[in-house]
Amino acid sequence: MHIRWLKIFCDVVDQGSFSHAAEVNGVSQSNASQVVHQLEERLGVQLIDRSKRPFLLTPEGHRFHEGSRVIVQRYDDLEREVRSLHDAVAARLTVASIYSVGLAHMSRYLREFLAANPQADIRLEYLHPHRVYGAVDSGEADLGLISYPEESKSLAAIAWRTEPMVLVCHPEHPLAGKSSISLKELQGESIVAFQAGLAVRDEIDRVLMLDDVSVKIALEFDNIETIKRAIEIGAGVSLLPEPTTEREVSAGTLVKVQLNGRPLVRPLGIIHRRDRELSDTARRFVQLLQARAVESNLSAANGHIIRRPQWSPQTVG
Fold it and tell me: Is the pTM of this model over 0.90?
């Protein structure tokens, strides 16, 4: 016995007409009549007395109608609940981000996205770069925001934005009074560096080596916020992505100096599982990030040299 049969029977009774019930359910009048007949055969009782005009329900028909209405209503409620659950899951998006990307950009983007997509449920987690890869690869996160993104057999990368690197120093440092410097002027300087093994550290070391510049590593940290705090107490200078310094430069606690000569940039990308199609929510979020990157004029351009990642930029449209 099908739920659809019960609905047709209920509509026949509620409408008081086989033809009206047939129209509501998109079937012919004969099909509606046949459904009621099959129900009667299955139950072994007469549900409708067709000898009367209009037809009348038998006592058995009354009871079956009462019970069928409850079943049909419960099924309709269940369908709506399941659809709502599906929509909620589809609207949910978990994003794993490295600390500097999240702190520098994400609050503004999240507010804008949620204002335009109030049904979305975005969960943002800040993780160490290696853990961002692991979270996306394991399915714990739908998207990963990472610097120097690298593709793998299971992970694909989407180009997002490219950030120029600048020298960052204490306001009283001798280099603070310059509008720009070359990398060679860092010869012998004490550097508050990124932790060895991080992609950004590898890139900085590579560019310094190309210019034959030797520096002293004063301290090493795995995140930009701690590096900035160390510079504020005079522990040394550092090379950092320019957008991550806006708050401190505006407050006057740090000074940024532009770099001349060999370009040094930090590319940011969005990683996701190759074997999972992006949800509508994820796709719209990626589109927002890419659109804002273009508007802020921080996309890759002007001959910047980028060693990593070894992949062709993609866009989501």
Answer: no
State CA 191 to chain mean position distance. 35
Distance of CA 228 to the CA centre of its chain: 28
Task: Give the number of other CB atoms < 10 A from CB of residue 76.
Answer: 12
| Strand 155-169 versus strand 255-260 pairing type | antiparallel
How confident is the model over 226-239, as pLDDT tens digits? 999 999 999 999 99
Within 13 Å and on the Cβ side, how many CA atoms surround 275? 6
Q: Residues 174-208: pLDDT tens digits?
A: 999 999 999 999 999 999 999 998 999 999 999 99
- Structural domains for the chain: 3-88 (1.10.10.10), 92-161+267-295 (3.40.190.10), 163-265 (3.40.190.10)
Pair 301, 164: CB distance under 8 Å: no
